[in-house]
Amino acid sequence: MKNRFLLLVNKLWQKQRLFIQKLKNSLNYFKPIENDHQHRRMSFSAQAIAGVIISTVTALSVTALSVTSNPLPNISYKTSWIGNTFGGGSKWVQIQISAMYVANDGTVYTNSVWDEAGREAGIYKDGDAIAKASNLHGWGRTGGEAVTANSKYLYIAMAQGTIDRMVIQDYPSSKTEWYCVRRYNLSGEPAPFAGGRGYDKSMLIVSTSGQVTGLANVGSELYVSDSAANRIRVYDAETMAELRSWSVDRPKQIAVDSQSNLWILQAKDASNPPQILHYSKTGTLLSQKITDVVDPTALAIDPQGRLLVTENGPRQQVLIYDISGTPKLIGAFGTQGGIYSGTRGEVGELKLNGLTGVGTDRAGNIYVSNDGFGGSGTDLRKFSPLGKRQWQLLGLQFVDNADADPGTDGVDVFTKHEHFVMDYSKENGQEWSYKAYTLDKFRYPDDPRLHNQTHSAASVFVRRIDGKRFLYLTGMFAHQISIYRFDGEIAVPSAIFARDHSTWPTNQPATGSWLWHDKNGDGSIQSNEYESLGAEDDSIWGWEVDSNGDVWQASESGYIKHYRYLGLDTYGTPSYNAASSEKIPMPAPFNKLLRIKYYPDTDVMYLGGYTVDRPHTGEEWGIVGTEIVRYDNWTRNKTLRWRITLPYDPKANPMLIIKAMDVAGDRVFAVDSRKAEVYVYDTSTGAFVAKLTPGTEVAGETGWVDIPYALRAYRRANGEYVVFVEEDAKAKVIVYRLGEKREG
To answer: Is the pLDDT of residue 65 over 80?
Structure first.
């Protein structure tokens, strides 16, 4: 399953190439620091720039960690979070798990290609995040797709990219990538060996063409799937010298049985389904094989000698095979259908969801890692041998924000994939419970969240229209807004407004902007369901869905487009068309429009952008701009009530720019891109009220703000404000809870 970071790469690179080059030029004074303790002494911002942006593979990271203190006591507030078991600091659950190995004592070792804060390879035990494999993030390095361990060492599949300025230490030559096995001790520190490569001599170069896709260890031997060469390679686990190899087409995960024979997952290709092959440890193909699998993703041997296979197809179960003779399927673990059994999407103890790893400890406890679908997050669970859940660790959010359902006073909260239920009587990250997963991969394969994620899914608008709940989603670059109706807990794709073109859907109109409407209610995209909306405009960053269901666009090109809500169709989908839309000229004092927020009940419009007085002077893109302006009587005479001068210094280090804004109750909220500080203003006067920064509850830290609708605010019936802010670094959404102080 491709990692979410890589799904962002192509589009992000196009936008940031010039920006990255300037950062490179300005960072020549950073010296290579390979000691992890020294590395951490740099600001995390510097680490992200010097250790990530200048590297080949990780050149597109936009995350930094900003550690701040609480300022300005104008209002009382506290910091909370949703989506991660831990609040931050040294403990967080990584954003994904691509592979997992479980030791006899129940220590869980994981690996993934990318974790924004550097836990590509995590170490977990007894429901706690106890460590990580160090120095695996930045400096051209990423994790990978395989992991194993023995009683002495941890072995991690990883990649080492080129570092242009590295001429003394051992790094790949220009335009070269090393795909390695890196050896660590069991605490997560590199364990070098004679002949090892890389700056600390802990890397074994397996390939320069493709990822290591499987690892297993038994006795003194380490087995490695070299996918690019279609070979299994065997190394001495201590000296790391290659002992032998043999040919296997498309090898992936490996499990070694009690007879020291290998079970190797062979990936599918265009002509062949997946299967699991059986080899002796010397490379002889044995007669036993398993072919009754649809989408196997991981293998393990349990204490009884049975083969466990994670089946990520419609079954969503761990399959159990007796391999003492001819392999025989004798059972399955988890509810058949997984997250889609019973009430589809509703979370359940034994309902698995996007399986990526399985393992057991010596007592027979079962561990399963789940990643969901379409860039969802980590769900790691331990079960007793009888199937009772012992603990669960969650790291669910990445390039993601949350919004409150106005129909339930903010009790129901949604992110791009998840439904949370809040109990506001609890504190410090305990308010939320994971209620449901709203994406149905098998019933709705055309869901935009499964395709072009940079375009389709990052920021969520929750709206009640004619009493019904809807989700509106837009992506990192605001290319489109996707509309979902609900069928129980599942959000069904129903419509898409697209400002321009991308590679998906394949049957979209050839030119211009377009609207897709699910005319037959099947959630699939057919060619006869499109309508043209006019010329393509890739300068639209402003999207809004007002309380009436109207859709608004604000364009840097100098106009506002307004699509009126026309009611619900037979299948409960909001209807829009070009004929009922209007195009409104950009009002003074703007020269570029980037954000829009409209309240039809009071006829008040809030616009964000650059103005004649405070123009665009930097190289930033897709931000709120330099001012927010309120207009009263919008539909009649557009009376300008006030202008908020936003913080703006694109030449500063770090640059000071406002990435996202929202309005709720009596407050305007705006969040800075680099330090993630939230500026609060009064809606009546535009006066500055306070500044919010992450509190001790989340170790006073946060990542950069990446997405255009990274801030959502809601005022509850009791007057409390709940403000959600994107927090990519440690796989969560920050929640500020504000209760204003009353004098007397």
So the answer is: no
